[in-house]
Amino acid sequence: MATETVSARPSGGWISALNTRHHRTALNLYMLIVLGHWAEHIAQAIQIYVLGWPLSEARGVLGLPFPWLVTSEWMHYGYALLMLIGLILLRHGFTGRSRTWWNISLGIQVWHHFEHLLLLSQAISGYHLLGRPTVTSIIQLLVPRVELHLFYNTLVFIPMVVAMVLHRRPRASERSLMRCTCAVAHQW
């Protein structure tokens, strides 16, 4: 009769690993991507409102040498999808208050993703919302696109940062539920 060896490693594959032993690294990489994107929106806003550049020339930092980045609905949709996937995949590593704030960010990103899906579908089909001359999102009917996307990214970013701060500094009850090593050691 053969004896089976049971592995002490938790099951769940790469998603489990992403939310346990690799959670801190994954969050840091994700935040680097988010900050890079957010910096592009801020650079574009500075180009428009501080430097007085016309909207057609205000393309952020990467958009200056690569103008298609600003006009590509595929690129914008891809980033919105990447944000959504990251928020979903990394969610399982959060507990307590940090999970609540992460979920708020996720909820806002679901809407933001929907708006980009709407923009992409208009770009592909050639049919624009309410017969507009260009692709238009729902909230863009009220707020210009540059300001809207800076606002959306801010709305997603703030609860994400709150979640990460609370995740790094959990209460004792939250720390006991954590399966990752993201929490900083007590300093008192």
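Above is the first protein from milestone M3; the second protein from the same milestone is given next.
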Amino acid sequence: MVNVITEIIINCPKIHVADYAANPDHAPVWYDNINSSDWKTPKPLQLGSQIAFRARFLGKDLAYIYEIVEFIPGEKLTMKTAQGPFPMETTYTWAAIDSNTTKMTLQNKGEPKGFSKLFSPVMATMMRKANEKDLKKIKEILEK
């Protein structure tokens, strides 16, 4: 099991950070490895929404559909996929430090099928580095 938790402080009100991060249309902008997002269910985002993503990670092209399994606007978003070589659950949480400062937490957990169990620690390290880079990117975008 891989379970990677990263967080960052963003100098922007919580509602702006949460609204931006929770919008799948923005994912290809701030996630380095995500190339596209495509709504499979009607907007707006809600429980049960499904979004198809295309990404590249560890030199492989990946296509997967996330389903929204928990959504508390401005507080928490959890999406989950069961298909593909790496069933994954991704959770975002947002906490106000003050009126213009937000702590955003990004958690990815899953079980990489088709990979050796010995590879999990290496994969976790690579995911952590990618997540840290992505959080720095969203911070840069939102603090402009």
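Note on the second protein: The longest strand covers residues 60-72.
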